[in-house]
């Protein structure tokens, strides 16, 4: 029978392990997103990191798309959307105080081949500390989700969407801030002809000693209300009028003015991802609905005025005839 002393030792050790575990489970990943209310599925379209641990070295390539996130080809599906679309991201539950930020990298020909390392990033969304709550608390109240819109005026092409939750609970120590990062791959149809600006270089834009990363007085007089997440201002993009959800912010006049009709599409390049229900009607599949592809067994004719066009082996879609 173990002595009183060794029992105490065992209990102590168990307590230490339990508390380490609870710290580990407090970590978080970006695990799902929705485009105009439709999700391609859990972890689909996202370069999932090897673990839910944070990146703390802001000068490493891991700051781009998390550990393993710059590996190409990525083997991850690219999800189709359009400028002005509403993107909802969902993260694992988090009690770590801090902001959420979204950046785009592109356009590129093939998002699955883009490492994201370098100067091609622009910030398109940021939530910091609002009405006494950090972004993670605000998200916690809505099932750990955060919603924003893609800017209008984007050039058509493929992009990386970088979601970052910066945890500041250890930011009072140099190198203590914890960056949780996940990158999704999007194919965006846009009306712009130029990129958004200003550009952000990753790694490079963040320094460990930046005043929004290293906050010595975080628990002692720090004013969260004036806090702004790293990466600078939210970008402006070339003007365009294609989206059905106009963005108030962009003011640039660099792009051509288009009168293209609003489009609603959500397609994925990989067969394992289809979770959207095809919209069928007596006259055929609705405009932009699915009408074919490997594994598809629904209606294959489109409503009048639309034709079924093959996007890839896995997806055919009704488009204007
Ligand atoms: Cu954690």
Automatic annotation (TrEMBL):
Residues 239-262 are annotated as: Disordered. Gene3D superfamilies: 2.70.50.70. InterPro entries: AA9, AA9_LPMO, CBD, CBD_sf. It holds the Pfam family CBM_1. It is an enzyme of class 1 (oxidoreductase). Residues 244-262 have a biased composition (Polar residues). It is found in: Secreted. Its EC number is 1.14.99.56. Residues 1-26 form the signal peptide. Residues 283-319 form the CBM1 domain. It catalyses: [(1->4)-beta-D-glucosyl]n+m + reduced acceptor + O2 = 4-dehydro-beta-D-glucosyl-[(1->4)-beta-D-glucosyl]n-1 + [(1->4)-beta-D-glucosyl]m + acceptor + H2O. PANTHER family: ENDO-BETA-1,4-GLUCANASE D (PTHR33353:SF1), PUTATIVE (AFU_ORTHOLOGUE AFUA_1G12560)-RELATED (PTHR33353). Belongs to the polysaccharide monooxygenase AA9 family. This is lytic cellulose monooxygenase (C4-dehydrogenating). It comes from Apiospora phragmitis.
């Amino acid at each position: 029978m173990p002595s009183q002393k060794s029992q105490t030792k065992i209990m102590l050790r168990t307590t230490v392990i339990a508390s380490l575990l609870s710290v580990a489970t407090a970590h978080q990943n970006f695990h799902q997103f929705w485009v105009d209310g439709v999700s391609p599925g859990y972890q689909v379209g996202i370069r999932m990191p090897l673990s839910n641990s944070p990146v703390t070295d802001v000068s490493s390539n891991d700051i781009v798309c998390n550990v393993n996130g710059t590996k190409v080809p990525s083997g991850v599906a690219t999800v189709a959307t359009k400028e002005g679309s509403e993107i909802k991201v969902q993260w694992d539950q988090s009690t770590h105080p801090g902001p959420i930020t979204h950046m785009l990298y592109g356009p590129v020909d093939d998002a699955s081949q883009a490492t994201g390392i370098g100067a091609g990033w622009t910030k398109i969304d940021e939530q910091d500390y609002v009405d006494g709550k950090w972004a993670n608390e605000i998200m916690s109240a809505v099932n750990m989700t955060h919603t924003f819109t893609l800017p209008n005026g984007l050039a058509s092409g493929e992009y990386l969407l970088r979601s970052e939750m910066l945890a500041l609970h250890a930011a009072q120590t140099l190198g203590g801030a914890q960056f949780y990062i996940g990158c999704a791959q999007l194919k965006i149809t846009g009306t712009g002809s130029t990129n958004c600006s200003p550009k952000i270089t990753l790694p490079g834009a963040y320094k460990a000693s930046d005043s929004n990363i290293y906050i010595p007085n975080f628990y002692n007089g720090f004013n969260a209300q004036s806090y702004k997440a790293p990466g600078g201002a939210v970008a402006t993009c070339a003007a365009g009028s294609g989206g059905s959800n106009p963005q108030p912010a962009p003011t640039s006049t660099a792009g051509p003015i288009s009168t293209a009709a609003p489009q609603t599409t959500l397609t994925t390049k990989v067969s394992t991802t289809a979770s959207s229900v095809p919209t069928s009607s007596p006259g055929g599949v609705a405009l932009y609905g699915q009408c074919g592809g490997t594994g598809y067994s629904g209606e294959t004719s489109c409503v009048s005025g639309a034709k079924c066009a093959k996007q890839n082996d896995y997806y055919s879609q009704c488009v204007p005839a």
